[in-house]
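Practice problem 4.
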């Protein structure tokens, strides 16, 4: 028997063992022996982990969490969900679609208002951060965004869409968000913010898709370009200017549309960042802000390592809230 055949047989035996144990645990849960089953899951988790059987531990905790959720045992389910993450954090598991889908499903099953969900999503995103996805894997963000959208948590959904590559989905969500909770006079502001934030993340393709889709589908926006709303015309011209990369065009554009840009104090902060990324504008020498604006600028958006290597220093991080 070859080495590969030995490994295959060993893996099959391990899966068979997990399935047998899983069957016994499932029977305990079905009988309502929740506490006993939960403790047995935990015992088996640490046993598997100590033996280096990370995949088996993860699979068992995932199936157990889903089972507990189906019996409305939310605390036990959340605990096993955290153990799924622990198995990933302590192993060399690759970031693959199946695992991302499992993490997204556990997130969906959790109580939206539970502190465990907040902790879970934070750790899941951190684990999925790999290679170019330093702020979390785009596919995971996309699945989280869709779940939050279905829960009508539009603000959080928007955040995760921004870190995905799903500009069309983001636009569809924003149309619903605007129509259900926004004023008619602000229909242009919903998409303007998203486009500027996508550009701050150097995601020009998604910025273009979200703008085109939103302006085509929103019932309160007349067909364009050009548009009735000056702010939409500014965003349209800005996307064209980004393609051209000419600083003079960008500068004149920002000057001409200042009345529209003053509608939100964050617009010019986003444009400062966009100027640095796409038009070679040097970063500000200092950026000390207080109050609400300071909070908005403090966190998410800063120069990446790659930009630093290219000599683009950033002293004005921008949070995409």
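Answer key:
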């Amino acid at each position: 028997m070859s080495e590969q055949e030995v490994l295959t047989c060993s893996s099959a035996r391990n899966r068979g063992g997990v399935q047998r144990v899983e069957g016994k645990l499932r029977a305990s849960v079905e009988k309502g022996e929740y506490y006993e089953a939960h403790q047995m899951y935990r015992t088996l988790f640490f046993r598997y982990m100590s033996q280096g059987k990370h995949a088996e531990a993860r699979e068992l905790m995932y199936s157990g969490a889903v089972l507990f959720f189906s019996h409305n045992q939310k605390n036990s389910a959340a605990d096993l969900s955290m153990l799924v993450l622990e198995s990933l954090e302590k192993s060399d598991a690759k970031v693959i679609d199946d695992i991302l889908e499992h993490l997204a499903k556990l997130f969906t099953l959790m109580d939206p208002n539970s502190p465990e969900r907040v902790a879970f999503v934070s750790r899941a995103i951190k684990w999925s951060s790999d290679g170019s996805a330093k702020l979390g894997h785009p596919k995971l963000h996309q699945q989280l965004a869709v779940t939050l959208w279905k829960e009508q948590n539009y603000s959080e959904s928007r955040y995760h869409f921004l870190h995905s590559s799903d500009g069309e989905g983001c636009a569809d969500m924003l149309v619903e968000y605007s129509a259900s909770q926004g004023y008619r006079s602000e229909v242009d502001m919903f998409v303007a913010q998203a486009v500027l934030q996508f550009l701050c993340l150097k995601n020009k393709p998604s910025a273009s898709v979200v703008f085109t889709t939103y302006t085509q589908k929103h019932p309160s926006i007349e067909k364009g370009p050009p548009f009735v709303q000056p702010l939409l015309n500014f965003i349209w011209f800005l996307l064209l200017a980004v393609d051209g990369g000419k600083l003079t065009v960008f500068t004149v554009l920002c000057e001409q549309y200042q009345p529209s840009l003053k509608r939100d104090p964050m617009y010019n902060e986003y444009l400062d960042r966009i100027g640095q990324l796409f038009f070679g504008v040097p970063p500000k020498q200092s950026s000390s802000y207080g109050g609400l604006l300071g909070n908005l600028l403090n966190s998410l958006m800063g120069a990446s390592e790659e930009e630093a290597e290219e000599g683009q220093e950033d002293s004005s991080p921008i949070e995409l809230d």
